Amino acid sequence: MLLSFTDKDINSIKGEKIVAKKDAEVDTEEKGKEEASKKGGLSTVKIIIIVVTLTLLLGGGLVGGTFYFVSNMNQTQASNSKDGASKTAEGEEGGELDKEEAAENKVLETPHYFSMDPKFVVSFSNQKYARFMQFSLEIMSRDAEVIQKVEEHNPVIRSSLLMLFGTQGYDEMVTREGKEKLLKDTAADINKTLQTVTGSSDMATAIEAAYFTSFVIQ
Predict the structure, then answer these.
(1) Is 139 within 8 Å of 207 (Cβ atoms)?
(2) CA-CA to 96 of 20 to 30 Å: which in 7, 34, 128, 208?
(3) Which domain holds residue 209?
(4) Number of domains observed in the structure of the chain
């Protein structure tokens, strides 16, 4: 049995094939887009994961580095503080030792005494209670050369002392305080005289002390 197709039937069959072909192409294109979209989505997720991972690693490195730097800096400052405190303590100890050594050296120096003979006899200006005082005097220095200077310039020194003693009153000389003050004034007066006659400022403290070895008021 032979089938006969008209031109209309043939055109209809061709149209159906074309539509089917287009539909297949559309389906293939959509599938490709879907796959590309899936691949693109996966790529985006991977990129995000990589970025987050790098951020965490970098952040951890910065925090660790900062902590390490701050820790080392604190340790260095603490070490410097300890060293400074140690040096300060050593310096203070050294200063105290120097002072102690200086004091010991001063104590160990031998005192030299000189007797200002003859005795001093001084009249009181007010003789209501007594007419005069008489006393022996010795002076002390820790420098033997100073004693030699005192012997050499003894006339000048005694003259100045007699003028000092002549200003003393009975009321002062009968007290311990008055006598102690006169001894201090005596040492200062001798030092002043030595400075004048020698022209040396080193004599300002040449005589360290003066002592009464006898003392009478009549």
Answers:
(1) yes
(2) 208
(3) 112-217
(4) 2
